[in-house]
Amino acid sequence: MKSQSPAANQVESLETPGVTNGVDRRLFCKLIGGGIVVLITSKPSDLFAQRRGYPEDLNAYLRIDENGRVTLFSGKIEMGQGVHTSLAQMAAEELDVSPESITMVMGDTDLCPWDAGTWGSLSTRMFGPAVRAAAAEARTVLMKLASEKLGTPRAQLVVENGVVSNGSLKVTYGELAKGKQITRLVGEKAVLRTVKEFKVIGKPAKRMDAREKVTGRAKYAGDIRLPGMLYARMLRPPMHGATRKSLDTSKAKAMSGVTVVERDDLVAVLHADPERAGEALALIKAEWDRPAAVFDTESVGDYFVKNGGEGHVSTSKGDVTNPPSSGHAIESTFRNGYLAHAPMEPHTALAEWKDGKMTVWASTQSPFGARTRIAHVLGLEENKVRVITPFVGGGFGGKGSTEQGVEAARLAQITGKPVMMMWTRGEEFLLDTFGPAAVVRVNSAFNAAGKMTLWDYHVYAAGERSSEMLYDVPNIRMTSYLGSSLGGAKVHPFGTGPWRAPGAWSNVFARESQIDIMAAAAKVDPLEFRLRNASDERLRRVLKVASDAFGWKAGAGPSGQGRAIAAGLDAGTYCALAAEVAVDRKTGAVTVKRVVVAQDMGLVINPEGAKMQMEGCINMGLGYVLSEELKFRGGDIIDRNFDTYELPRFAAVPQIETILIKNDDLAPQGGGEPAIVPMGAVIANAVFDATGVRMYRLPMTPERVLAAMKGA
Amino acid sequence: MKKSVRFRLNGHPVALDTDDRRTLLWVLRDDLNLTGTKYGCGEGVCGACTVAVDGTAVRSCQTTVAAVEGKSVVTIEGLEHDGKLHPLQQAFIEHNGFQCGYCTSGMLMNAWALLQKQPHPSRSAIVDEMNANLCRCGAHQRILAAIEQASKAGGAR
Q: Between residues 91 and 120 of chain B, which touch chain A (CB distance below 8 Å)?
């Protein structure tokens, strides 16, 4: 089958800024209604690739209606990362209202401004300034109106919770907005609150989606119900690359209540009950030609290295081929396998075809990308497609692609009925994209003073994200082969795409392992070795804060303590992890007992939300480090459910301590990904510190650790 | 194959005329419009579809409606009473024991059933019981802390 890579969709939408979305100004004004509306536009440099011709190239808008309700419209989506709350906090700060009083409308392509997608730890970093500016501008408008209404100079007015007062008279935001139709367009020049003035930003906030989520009332795409809705199941090839030789749908057609759809590339059965649809699918007979496997779980790394081609040199400094006084040189090769995103909610979409308009409720990280693709496949104008994004049940990069939405829309158009397409878990393991397997070869050296002299780095299929050499090395060469982890390379037997901090964790696993290997060879404490080679102050600070909080006891590795440190820079955020492990020498099982996370992410909007993301990174990181690796043979994916593809469970999670380093002068940096990045290295380094055995391949399954210990 | 099936659902009697081989998960979600119970894996290995039957946690994707005939089923929608959250729900909010929220109903129902049997479980008993439920966002420690807090607050209500 032809696999649709989500990354391809992303790139396509990122690179076609000229396309207009077809929502005209009149419709737009009708949609947003009266009251006070602030539209925000930002410089392309600030919101790179995040904008495209919405009426005024705006990135956000905010409305205060006649009832005083504040509504923030955002093309971002909420998939658990908490921007639903942090964006409201930013608006609340500038408007002097409580975050809870703000209604968030997210990811609806008819109501929200265009947005490329929710990924890359960008929402707070790139989108936050626009939200704050909109709210600040709205406050300016409201204060002017209040000043006129109360006959009091602006400087003498105070605002609390949406009520403006001059000491004796009061007027609410709602009263001020009543009967008005004020539209403002601002850049980011609006006067913003300073850190000292913050009442909401920087304070831990409870999640605004909490009550809905603990009562089961929160709606996800699969929870939307329409009269006459049918569940669809599609005939899937048994493996990627298979082509169909024969088809017999007669038995499925004979089943009562079943609709069978047959198009060249689309064979589906529909029924009001998803389980009956599944039974009908099982009655379809099809034969397939299966392509031979080129490589599998075990041989993928060697295949990449043999077939990497010329490579692309991204950094070259000094002389790596003949470095002066290179000293002690060490060459290592690091590997990791393919990873499944495995969000608990599989890709889901409900499509309704009505009066020439297609409405699709979809679990997606890219509602606007989904709209473009659905319109293209169905041959519709973009304004005839509306994508609505309810709560998304986890994404991790995998829901940048919305092929389930395309499938639901096609079937809704063909049958004229509302169609629910909820991928089964087995389909999710076949059709989702995967974080790519990767190989890193690195040759490095240090001198008698324990200073690094050489860094010759070759990365295969992970790309360059977070591969920057954070330490001071005079001779550096970085070469990348087989494209990036975003799915560009053709070498993979199935679709690949971004997996939480794509490529970054492959690169940092290699770098921070290699640093540890050099420290051990130099017989220097691994923290001391890092500090000796680091002049970057933010790097030094996260290393010191993490090791202090951990209670670091110096000693060259392997010290027998089972402790280690590793650091990374990702999405503008520096993060250091210090961890302690225990290794069962009989079984090879690694238990992560404790992880200390120190993070410098600039100004922190919601410290509680930031800590939840850091903890999530550690827990999710345990998977790729210890148990997760997609087993496959060519395009044939062997893992099809959680019984064999093992996610981290409660018994495996460590004690976690999170520390946010105060750096309020720096604008907010990324928070959803940085802490997952150094997990591979810190655990591999801790295993080495405990056992003296170096692990070069992720995941570090008990079998691999045991084999390495026996070989040592 | 149509049969009349009767059981109690969140304290109220329910009578359905349906194929009783259907799973409880889809009957809840489609016939009874209780969509808080989620599909996650379809094989009983993730716990997103957990509900309680006569006080015991079951995987509703592996349970036919025939199997709950005459029994009492409690779903996530049944924990809140008259606008008052169950102590477990309150504790999940206080500890931020979720992110995307998709596994949350199953987590709460698994924990609720545990507290029915064992009102004051040890930390390790909680871990053992919850180990069958998957959370991909990584809210594990907060979920455990929330269950501990609720058990102290008399969570077996």
A: 92-94, 96, 98-105, 108
